[in-house]
Design goal:
mainly alpha; two-stranded antiparallel sheet; elongated
């Protein structure tokens, strides 16, 4: 600690001149002052900073607020040791100003310990320093990172009290904080009450809806923004809107947003989200076109294409893109490997799957639970249930219920009653309120004609109040999304829909009778 504190041990810092003759030294135009500021601008390490700090003390400029503020700002930016040194600087200063506190709050917000930013804010307020429009965006960001909703509400109160709700930057970070804490209604209220909104405010609210899975609301707000804001949408709002289209399966609306980008050109970030959107909507040809049109591709571009091809059943093409990615020198990441392992699982390429899985460590990647899940799926789909079981038993982390459920489904498909029964009981213990697990186990018993066990499982469901959620599907027609549950008759065009189904059934029966198909 002595090495960190050495220039500070002798004299507390103050904004008031306490020695005669200091004014002549600390005049902003003095040569010493200018030299020290230049040295601070080029400072690149804590040791160099300590030397400059010592010169400040010797020359009497430790009392100059401009020099001290700059010293603090440069120190805080030299992570991680510089931040510790900056904190020591602040504690030795008799009367820190708001700029100094803002500097420390900002630095702590972007550090590994954002909670310190909140402690620094509390100290600032307790010492009678009024927070300003530069303080709150960083304090709110710290609340977002920590999911500290109660502290965030307290900060919101400060903002209202100080009359800063009209500041678009403060309002935008307040919206973002509520959204990240999953309080989207609070975020919406803040947004609607903002007297002035810029594209950043709109982007924050659209992004908030998308983060909280309110995809329809995100798209409605994006459309509203197009009508009410003269400026073109910024990249953040476009990314959120396109992502919402992909997650909703709203292909037509996604294409409309894509058409907005054609005039300006597509950045790599927007290209990546477009690839993802088209792949999720099943329009893989469009995703491939976007991929090839991008002059610059990053690891997320390649990963999105590999995953998109795999999820659309084009396993060989996904593997080919993965190999081409390696050939051009682009290092894959964990998501890329999820894509290529999924591709192998869908077509039963067990040897290739093992090879790709083992090759992760060649790139310094440690397999995660999602990669082990892909290997379980690979073996389970191919009917190698014992191998899948061994993967679950040997993986370094605890398998989640989804992995066990995947193997349970494979046991039903491949008729392995003994292993299915063992796994079924285990997954029910892990997730006793998931109706699908009971149904799978019941079906396994039914396939073995163990009717007493079927009744036993159904009895467990009734006793525990577990219900099987009905399956549902979604379709987009002329830009409007329609969702249907099993046996659902709430749609306003139910009669026409069921009438068309009956007509199709009749046509299929006629075809079967005519062609003699069994």
């Amino acid at each position: 600690m002595a090495s960190v504190l050495s220039p500070l041990m002798t004299t507390p810092l103050s904004l008031s001149n306490q020695k005669s003759g200091v004014n002549s030294i600390s005049e902003p135009n003095s040569k010493v002052h200018r030299n020290l500021l230049r040295q601070l601008e080029s400072c690149s390490g804590v040791n160099q900073l300590k030397q400059i700090h010592s010169r400040c003390i010797v020359s009497g400029l430790y009392e100059n607020p401009i020099v001290v503020s700059k010293l603090l700002a440069i120190s805080a930016s030299l992570m991680p040791n510089g931040l510790t040194y900056a904190h020591v600087l602040l504690t030795h200063f008799i009367d820190p100003n708001a700029f100094m506190y803002n500097t420390m709050i900002r630095a702590y917000t972007y550090s590994k310990n954002p909670r310190e930013a909140l402690f620094m804010f509390n100290e600032m307020v307790s010492r009678g320093k009024s927070p300003d429009a530069y303080t709150f965006p960083f304090v709110l960001r710290a609340c977002s990172l920590l999911l500290a909703i109660d502290k965030g509400k307290e900060i919101h109160g400060f903002i209202v009290k100080l009359g800063l709700m009209s500041n678009v930057y403060v309002g935008g970070t307040l919206i973002d904080m509520y959204a990240k804490c999953n309080k989207i209604k609070y975020a919406s209220k803040v947004f609607e009450k903002m007297p002035t909104k810029d594209v950043v405010s709109w982007a924050a609210m659209i992004g908030g809806y998308e983060k909280c899975k309110c995809f329809e609301e995100a798209l409605r707000l994006f459309v509203r923004m197009r009508y009410q804001v003269l400026e073109a949408p910024n990249e953040a709002s476009l990314v959120s809107a396109i992502s919402a289209c992909g997650l909703l399966g709203a292909l037509e609306r996604g294409k409309c947003i894509h058409s907005l980008l054609c005039k300006e050109g597509v950045s790599v970030i927007l290209g990546n989200v477009l690839i993802d959107m088209y792949a999720k909507c099943g329009c893989i040809e469009e995703a491939i076109m976007v991929f090839h049109s991008l002059p610059v591709k990053d690891v997320f571009t390649w990963s999105g294409m590999v995953v998109g091809l795999a999820m659309n059943g084009l396993s060989d093409e996904a593997i080919a893109i993965f190999r081409h990615m390696q050939e051009v020198g682009q290092r894959p990441n964990g998501v890329t490997y999820v894509g290529v392992l999924t591709a192998c699982a869908h077509v039963g390429y067990m040897d290739e799957g093992r090879f790709f899985f083992d090759s992760m460590r060649d790139y310094g990647l440690e397999p995660g639970i999602e990669h082990y899940g892909c290997m379980v799926d690979l073996f389970a789909r191919a009917g190698y249930l014992n191998e899948a079981w061994l993967v679950l038993e040997s993986m370094p982390m605890k398998p989640d219920p989804i992995m066990w459920g995947s193997l349970l489904g494979a046991c039903r498909i491949h008729g392995n009653v003994s292993l299915g029964e063992r796994i079924g009981k285990h997954v029910i213990d892990l997730d006793p309120l998931h109706g699908g697990r009971y149904v799978l186990l019941s079906n396994i018993y039914a396939s073995a004609k163990r009717w007493a066990d079927v009744e036993m499982v159904r009895g467990m469901m009734e006793e525990r109040g577990v219900e099987k959620r009905p399956g549902w599907s979604m379709i987009e027609v002329r830009g409007v999304l329609h969702s249907f549950f099993v046996g659902d008759k709430r749609h306003p065009q139910t009669q026409e829909i069921y009438g068309m189904l009956e007509e199709l059934n009749g046509l299929m029966r006629e075809y079967i009778q005519k062609e003699g198909v069994r």
